[in-house]
């Protein structure tokens, strides 16, 4: 913050002698930055072009008098905070009152008392400085708030990205077990609440250990990705969730789907995997990678106790599919 003596003072007076006299008095009081204007119009031009801390304004001037200039200043959002001291030979109480009501800080009558002028100018400048400091602080605070809001917004984006990442399986890009558990619990509760069907498909690649043994673990990984892609092409409804349940086991949660719908979906998945035609010569079924699928469903009236029951039943069905020769769907 600059010193008070460095404040910029604007004298507006049509009479050169008055301007110079006031200029000298203010200089003697230690003010170094004093600008002179010979009319209200010129005064407003100066106010518009540079920062002014105090205006010492004559009242009787041709074209635009002091009151008119005061009105201009006080109706302008940026200028209304500049203090104005009227210095006039016009000794009329009515006019003095009007000026004070319009927002002038004081009304000094020429020839003014120099001690009074000194005190008034200083008081006005102190007030203006305080205002400027507060204004600056407010701006800094607003900028800080804005930065904070942006930071919060960015944090929210990162949080969402991290959360999405924590739901995904690193190898195949589909939902992982963690997310599967979450969704199953949510859909289980929704199905119970809304008395809707809920189906679950569990599927497992046939003779996958042999696949790894024959083609290597990396080829095995690639096979898992292809199976995930094939299955995800079948799952079209946005609320259905395909997840990697374990190593080479996958799961599909099908809300609002009965046994018939789930069977249809499972058969499509089975067909899509077989139809990938991924060569698997040590498979005992055909020479392609295949999968076995088990389905379980809760219907609205069923008395199943937990979502784990749904998993258990799908797992049993999957075991049956394996036992009956693999590459098939069992209920
Ligand atoms: P089945 O037809 O009865 O399912 O026989 P299987 O050989 O597929 O069953 P098993 O559970 O014995 O073998 C699963 C194999 O899956 C064993 C394991 O090495 C492999 N596996 C599990 N996770 C991964 C993985 O992320 N990448 C690869 N390449 N293999 C995996
Ligand atoms: Mg005059
Ligand atoms: Mg397995
Ligand atoms: Mg297997």
Automatic annotation (TrEMBL):
GGDEF domain residues: 196-331
Alphabetical list of SUPFAM superfamilies matching this protein: CheY-like, Nucleotide cyclase
InterPro entries in alphabetical order: CheY-like_superfamily, Diguanylate_Cyclase, GGDEF_dom, Nucleotide_cyclase, Rev_trsase/Diguanyl_cyclase, Sig_transdc_resp-reg_receiver
Domain Response regulatory as annotated: residue spans: 8-125
4-aspartylphosphate carried by residues: 58
Keywords tagged on the record: Phosphoprotein
Cross-referenced SMART domains: GGDEF (SM00267), REC (SM00448)
PANTHER family from the UniProt entry: DIGUANYLATE CYCLASE DGCM-RELATED, REGULATORY COMPONENTS OF SENSORY TRANSDUCTION SYSTEM
NCBIfam families: GGDEF
Protein name: Diguanylate cyclase
Organism: Pseudanabaena yagii GIHE-NHR1
Taxonomic lineage of the native organism: Bacteria, Bacillati, Cyanobacteriota, Cyanophyceae, Pseudanabaenales
């Amino acid at each position: 913050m600059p010193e008070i003596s460095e404040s910029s003072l604007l004298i507006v007076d049509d009479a050169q002698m008055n301007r110079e006299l006031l200029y000298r008095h203010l200089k003697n009081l230690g003010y170094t930055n004093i600008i002179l204007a010979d009319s209200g119009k010129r005064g407003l031009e100066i106010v518009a072009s540079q920062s002014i801390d105090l205006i010492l304004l004559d009242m009787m001037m041709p074209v635009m008098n002091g009151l008119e200039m005061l009105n201009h200043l006080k109706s302008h959002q940026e200028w209304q905070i500049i203090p104005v001291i009227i210095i006039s030979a016009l000794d009329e109480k009515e006019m003095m009152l009007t000026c004070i009501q319009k927002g002038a800080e004081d009304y000094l009558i020429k020839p003014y008392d120099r001690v009074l002028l000194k005190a008034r100018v200083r008081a006005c400048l102190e007030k203006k400085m305080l205002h400027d400091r507060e204004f600056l602080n407010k701006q800094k605070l607003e900028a800080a708030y804005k930065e904070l809001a942006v930071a919060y917004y960015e944090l929210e984006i990162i949080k969402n990205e991290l959360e999405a990442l924590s739901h995904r399986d690193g190898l195949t890009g589909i939902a992982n077990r963690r997310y599967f558990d979450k969704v199953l619990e949510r859909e289980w509760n929704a199905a119970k609440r809304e008395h809707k069907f809920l189906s679950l498909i569990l599927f497992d690649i046939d003779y996958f250990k042999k696949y790894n043994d024959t083609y290597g673990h990396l080829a095995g990984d690639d096979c898992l990705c292809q199976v995930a892609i094939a299955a995800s092409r079948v799952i079209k409804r946005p609320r259905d969730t395909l997840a990697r349940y374990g190593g080479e086991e996958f799961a599909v949660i099908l809300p609002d789907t009965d046994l018939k719908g789930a069977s249809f979906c499972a058969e499509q998945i089975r067909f899509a995997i077989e139809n990938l035609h991924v060569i698997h010569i040590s498979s005992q079924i055909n020479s392609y990678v295949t999968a076995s699928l088990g389905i379980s469903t809760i219907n609205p009236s069923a008395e199943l106790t937990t979502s784990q029951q749904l998993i258990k039943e799908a797992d049993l069905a999957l075991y049956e599919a394996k036992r009956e020769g693999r590459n098939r769907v069992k209920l």
